[in-house]
Amino acid sequence: MNRTEFIIATAVILFAAFALGWFAGWLVHRFTRVTRAEIGELDRMAQALHDAEETRDQALAFLATREAELENLIAQKEAELRAAMEGLRDSRQESEGLRSWIERNHRR
After folding, report:
1. Do 28 and 76 lie in a common domain?
2. Keywords, A to Z (predicted)?
3. What range defines the domain where residue 5 resides?
């Protein structure tokens, strides 16, 4: 094989490799191409996701508001419970005092 034949063989091999690469690229592009229907579906999915995120945000805001209301209600009920317990304790002390006074006066 002389120099000219070597250059021609190399050129043919390089051209064949180029053609094969171009064809492979075209096939990949052809099979991975996004159709209009798929784009429409992606748009619908994006809109549904956006709506779901808005709904989630509204639900989180509602939950935060409701949680604050319930915590306030719990604090009020705990304050009422403390006041009732203090009143009960005072009543018990008063009744004990009256019992002891009655027992002291009844014995005489």
Report:
1. no
2. Membrane, Transmembrane, Transmembrane helix
3. 1-33
